[in-house]
Structure formats: structure tokens, C-alpha cells
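Z., the sequence and structure:
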Amino acid sequence: MMESEKGMNLQRLNQRSEAFLLNSLRLGCSLPDMVFSPKWKYFYFFPADAIFDGGFPDVAHRLAGPVNAPVWLTPFSGGEVGAADALKINSGMPPESYRNLLKGKGPSEGWLYWITDYCCFPETECWFIYCERENDIAIVAFVDLPQNLDALNELGAALISDILNDPQNAHFPFSELVPEWREKLLIYRCP
């Protein structure tokens, strides 16, 4: 680990993980347009701040399956990868340790406070999260139909078709989407 200018213990993504990140996204795209590369087929939307809940490490590792591999949380903005500013989330990380990792030494230094757009993914490469915090939306993508629906439910994640059909029951204000966004987000419908 290295101490960043923000005073946090950040890590550099390994070359394989950085390549996976870059190959998972359509660089230069942002919501409501399709941000994922064509290999991703199943998309679940959830509130952006769910990733900052102390229970997220457990949820992330259950989504990754039985393999005990690290999960990476890294900045991503405007096609730029913050490969040197990644946080490594280990399996079994206690909620308080995770919150401390995000908060660092406070608002002037903590990852939680300065990050805007970010990605999260396990080294097993079985799912990928993209988030734009200013839009309060995060999306977890899968190549195949996800197996652990309980973990998705804990995030408050739902398919876009379910959300748009019943926006009042969504975990965040999809009912307030402008018509242009509602229409464009339909590209995230699953096969």
C-alpha cells in the first residue's frame, strides 16, 4: 500500500484488473447512455450510496461467489482510471474497518468525500459496478444471470424494467426522472 497525497492507504490496481476495468466500459460515455461494453447483459440499478454502507464488503463478496478474491473500488471519471487510487476490499472486512477505509482521516482526505464517479469489481471479474454519484445511481452488471439475488436485494437493486414499471417502489427517486432519461435508460433492459 502507499500513502497518497490525501493521506490515505491507497493501492494501485494490478495490470490485469486495470485492463478488465477499461474493457468493461464504453470510454467517454455517461448516464443515461450505455456505459458498459457489449459483453455485459444483465443490469441492476441501485442507490449509489449503498456502496458506502458498512455491510457492502459482505454483499460484494457474496456476489462474487465462493472464491475468496479481493474486490476493488476505484475512481473513474471522464474515461480516466484512478488506478493508483484504488481501495482493496477484503473478504470478511468488518463494517467499521470498511467505513474507516472510506473515511480516511476525514473530509479533507477521505476517499468517500472526494470521489465522484467510481467503479467496483471483484478480481474474479464476474460482475462490475459503475456509479455516477451526482446522479445517485449505481448499476451492477453481469455477463450471465446473477445467482445471488439475496445480495442484490440487500443493495436495493432492481432491473430497469421493474423500476420503470413501478417507480414508486424503487429504492430511490426514479419516479422523478425526466422523460429523456426514462427513455434512454431502456437500453439497460435485460435479454
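Confidence is low (pLDDT under 50) at residues 1-8. Strands lie at 2-3, 9-10, 42-47, 71-77, 80-81, 87-89, 117-122, 127-132, 137-142, 158-159.

Let me know what you think.
H.
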